[in-house]
Design a protein that fits this description.
The chain is α/β, with parallel strands linked by helices. The chain is globular. Strand 32 and strand 33 (about 815-820) form a beta hairpin. The strands form 7 sheets. The chain has a 9-stranded mixed β-sheet with strand order 1-2-4-3-5-6-9-10-11, sandwiched between helices. It has a 9-stranded mixed β-sheet with strand order 13-12-22-21-23-24-25-26-27, sandwiched between helices.
Length: about 950
């Protein structure tokens, strides 16, 4: 008994003095073969040969996690099994020069550099492995390199998807809240090693206490404690290091709050990176009882890396047990060695390793934003707020959308509101956040603000003042975006001239006194008469331009005049001039700051946009959808904006992965080529959750949602002028444009005389509102103080003011609006007026129809209603299908002729062009691809006799 007490006292004293028992258990031999600013590269068991494995530790755990003791040494097991182990050593940041200032990029580039070093020394591609966050570094480095030089990846408890849960079992709302912490605060402090150690111990407090009690009770038995002593000291004290603040901030922003390991588009240095670029085989170890990285989080790599073959080894282990302990020695590391040899062609696939099956993406949280927008009528926002306050399901979307919609309701004509103002707010909130992405490069809010402010100084230098109209003639590029924002910040009007349009006529309609062009469009700008032409963007040394180059202005040398006030624009001021149509149909549309804000906040709310989103604009900046919806929604929602220099369906999914696109914009039939394209590797488990835009035909809408599920279509309608905005947020009625957006203008359907082309009046002289399913003209109430256009007054009541949109709709019994066609599209047949919408929808529902155009062909004093369809590959139009599809259309609205064409002509933005088809007239019967409607209403192959009847003068 006395000897036992003596041994206990002696061992206890040694623990107190030296932190543990001396076990004479030496570390495995290694040499440092490379030493760089942010890492050292260790080669264990120098002189060894065989397949090469490079192991990467996580930030908060020391490198010795792979060599805790001879009994539980990962490198030792690998060496014994014929694998050559190397380890990246980040050191203890708190003891390294500049260690606490390291960024996430520093660590990823260190891993990539280590791969290059080992390849150079050994002449072999490496198998790259990492534990926990070290595995995330491996994924990121492999993606950064495009898998070059990497034979395979092996990760242990490494999350790739935080949408299914957060480390330590934290609730999902924590991700949103951490995303709100200012960058300067989040990155200003490091997490000490003892904090991480305590967090791990608190995961299993009973186990931690039991382990300590067991150690104390066995202090007398040194031989029994010795084999586990180094492991105990590692876990309780020596194995923990600090987490650098900047790296922590990036980790939280990119991977916890925004989940960009899964979606792609994370930033390494000045490059955008996506795990979809990983092409080498992957083996991921999953801890079935891992409380830090749950199985669903780890298995996210299957969706994040669609080009890679992902294998899995599932163990009944916790986070540490995957790499440390008896099970790790007997199962994990032997499987790793077997995997490496399998990849080298030396052995069969080890037992316990299997090819993973990609699971369906988990269902997301409820999109409260959709429901908020769906609340229609006066005080909708206030009502939604009461509903949400009374709900236990108060989610982040509600928190985001209520302030947006409330702010929108408060905007009056004299309220200060502009693009420049919102950009300044975002730059103050999160200066290091990425604002926009272009050609694979990210641009932060801070960098964008510097560029915008510099251009403002340049505009002042050349004489631009508040209220001036300035033409912008540029391709989609960062300078174009910065110039438009700078004009807004100055309070000037940006007249967005279309490079593929008629710049001279557009500049005149927009009353532009100056035109600023990029170098490639200076020549076209000089063809515009009566304007001053300036150049901006694409600054190269020694270039010789025939106009004044604003890039030569030093903004620091420009004095700021007393009249200048940043962001002076009021809601009622004209902010932009956009153009639609061409030739005799060319039209200038003046957009006020309020109208822009209405689209911006409406898009952000309807799509529940947040800083986790990246909005991809497929149309050029001069297009209304880009300026109002993509740019506006991204700025109002704090999301990133990705600019496409040109839309190419063949590269869409590569860019979607690289940018981490979650929301993609469209116009009309623009997505038809994408839905018709062959399957693309990047399409599997893609990150896109929404396609947003306007004008998508119902049949294409169905095909987009079926092929790209679980992505949905969010369809908008916005009047060319005024503030009428409809949005289909429920997605239950494809083809419907939904209901008015809260905060937008009140709209009604007024009964319309299609023959006479005028609103019908009731006995009292006022317009008559349509009943359910009755076709009528959409009119929008004019807000007090609204300046654009000339309203119609006294429409429904004395002195009221409404704007006629020119668009015909019907409203169903639920209150949802369905488009019928524009007044200019009406077909005036001998039997009556035929709107194109119902026929277009009915034929578009046929599964083999690709696109539909409905138009009139002159026939005597009237027109013949014709529908042209193009077919999907392998499709064949049957007369019986035509008859059945058109049964849903009232007989008097059905077309007299349906023809098959090779291609439906469309504009660059995807809008159907009927003029070329109309010019072709009625096709010949010998063509064999046309069908006429007989007297019984059935469709039959066109005959010469039937053609003569249709084409009669």
């Amino acid at each position: 008994m006395l000897s036992r007490l003596g041994a206990t006292a002696q061992n206890a004293l040694e623990v107190v003095r030296f932190g543990g028992l001396d076990t004479e258990d030496d570390a495995s031999p290694f040499e440092v073969v490379a030493e760089r600013r942010n890492h050292r590269l260790r080669h264990y068991f120098p002189g060894g040969s065989g397949p090469v494995v490079v192991l990467v530790p996580p930030l908060m755990v020391s490198t010795e996690v792979y060599d805790i003791s001879s009994r539980v040494s990962a490198v030792g097991v690998l060496r014994d099994l014929g694998v050559d182990p190397w380890v990246v050593d980040f050191g203890a940041p708190e003891r390294e020069p500049g260690g606490l200032e390291r960024t996430l990029t520093d660590h990823v580039l260190a891993v990539s550099e280590a791969v290059d070093t080992v390849r150079e020394i050994t002449g072999r591609d490496v198998h790259l492995g990492g534990y926990s966050q070290g595995g995330m570094f491996c994924y990121q480095a492999a993606a950064y390199r495009g898998s070059e030089g990497i034979a395979s990846l092996v990760t242990f408890g490494s999350p790739a998807d935080t949408s299914v849960g957060l480390p330590f079992g934290l609730p999902a709302w924590v991700a949103g809240e951490t995303g709100r912490i200012p960058d300067r605060l989040l990155g200003s402090f490091a997490v000490p090693g003892w904090v991480t150690r305590t967090g791990f111990q608190l995961l299993s407090p009973v186990k931690s206490v039991r382990s300590r009690v067991d150690f104390i009770l066995r202090l007398h038995d040194r031989e029994r404690l010795a084999p586990r002593e180094r492991q105990r000291r590692f876990l309780e004290r020596e194995g923990w290091v600090a987490w650098p603040g900047p790296a922590l901030a990036e980790f939280v922003r990119q991977f916890v709050a925004h989940n960009r390991m899964l979606t792609g588009g994370f930033v390494i240095g000045d490059r955008l990176v996506t795990l979809a670029d990983i092409t080498c085989p992957v083996l991921t170890f999953v801890g079935e009882v891992d409380e830090i990285a749950s199985p669903d989080m780890v298995r996210g790599i299957r969706r994040a890396a669609p080009r890679a073959e992902v294998y899995e080894a599932s163990l009944r282990a916790g986070h540490f047990g995957l790499v440390v302990g008896t099970q790790a020695v007997t199962r994990t590391w032997p499987m790793v060695a077997g995997w490496v040899k399998f990849q080298e062609g030396q052995e069969e696939l080890p037992e316990g390793v299997a090819l993973g099956q990609a699971s369906a993406p988990p269902e997301g949280t409820a999109q409260v934003g959709w429901q908020l927008v769906a609340g229609i009528g006066a005080g909708a926002v206030r009502s939604a707020a009461r509903v949400v306050r009374g709900s236990r399901q108060l989610t982040l979307e509600a928190v985001q959308n209520l302030p947006r919609l409330a702010r929108l309701e408060r905007i009056q004509a004299d309220t200060r509101m502009s693009l420049g103002l919102l950009l300044d707010e975002q730059a103050r909130r999160a200066p290091s956040d990425v604002f926009f992405l272009y050609r694979g490069r990210p641009y932060t809010q801070e960098a964008a603000k510097r560029r915008i402010d510099a251009i403002v100084r340049g505009l002042i230098q050349v004489g631009v003042r508040q209220g001036d109209a300035v033409g912008v003639l540029m391709e989609t590029r960062p300078t174009a975006l910065a110039l438009v924002a700078a004009l807004s910040r100055l309070g000037a009007v940006a007249v967005l001239l279309r490079p593929d349009g008629e710049p001279g006529r557009e500049a005149a309609l927009g009353e532009a006194g100056r035109v600023i062009a990029d170098p490639g469009n200076v020549g076209r700008a000089l063809e515009i008469g009566g304007v001053e032409v300036l150049a901006l963007g694409g600054a190269e040394e020694g270039r010789d331009l025939p106009v004044f180059d604003m890039e030569t202005i030093d903004p620091d040398e420009v004095p700021v005049p007393g009249w200048y006030e940043p962001n002076p624009g009021r809601a009622g001021d004209t902010a932009f001039v956009l153009f639609t149509g061409s030739g005799e149909h060319l039209r200038a549309n003046r957009v006020t700051n309020r109208r822009w804000a209405l689209s911006a906040f409406g898009t952000a709310s309807s799509a529940s946009l947040s800083p986790s989103d990246t909005v991809y604009s497929l149309t050029p900046l001069q297009h209304p959808s880009a300026l109002l919806m993509s740019l506006g929604g991204a700025v109002a929602g704090g999301a990133r904006l990705a600019l496409a220099s040109a839309y190419d369906p063949g590269t869409f999914w590569d860019e979607a992965r690289r940018y981490g696109i979650t929301v993609a914009s469209y116009t009309w039939t623009l997505l038809r080529d994408l839905v018709n394209a062959p399957p693309h590797p990047g399409e599997r488990h893609h990150p896109v959750r929404l396609f947003i835009g306007s004008g998508m035909p119902r049949g294409l809408w169905r095909r987009v949602e079926e092929r790209f599920a679980p992505a949905r279509v969010l369809e908008f309608y916005a009047s060319t002028e005024g503030e009428a905005i409809l949005v289909n947020v429920s997605d239950r009625k494809r083809g419907s444009l939904g209901r008015p957006l809260p905060g937008s203008a009140e709209v009604r359907l007024a009964r319309y005389d299609l023959e006479r082309g005028r609103l019908e009046e009731g006995p009292d002289g006022f317009a008559v509102e349509c009943g359910p399913d009755e076709i009528g003209m959409l009119v929008a109430r004019v807000r007090e103080g609204e300046r654009s256009g000339r309203p119609v007054r006294g429409l429904f009541a004395p002195s009221d003011a409404w704007r006629v949109t020119g668009d015909l709709f019907r409203r169903d019994a639920d209150g949802d609006f369905w488009p019928v066609g524009r007044e200019a599209e009406l077909i005036r047949t001998a039997e009556g007026i035929v709107p194109p919408g119902p026929v277009r929808d009915a034929l578009g529902d046929l599964p083999y129809v690709d696109a539909v155009a409905v138009y009139g062909v002159p026939s005597g004093d009237a027109e013949v209603a014709v529908a042209a369809v193009s077919l999907r590959e392998g499709g064949r139009l049957k007369p019986v299908d035509l008859s059945e599809a058109l049964l849903r259309v009232r007989p008097e609205l059905r077309p007299a002729l349906v023809r098959v064409v090779d291609e439906i002509p469309v504009t660059a933005a995807g809008r159907v062009r009927t003029e070329p088809l109309r010019d072709e007239g009625v096709p010949k019967a010998s063509d064999g691809r046309a069908y006429y409607r007989d007297r019984s209403g059935a469709y039959r192959p066109l005959t010469d006799g039937a053609r003569r009847g249709l084409a009669a003068p």
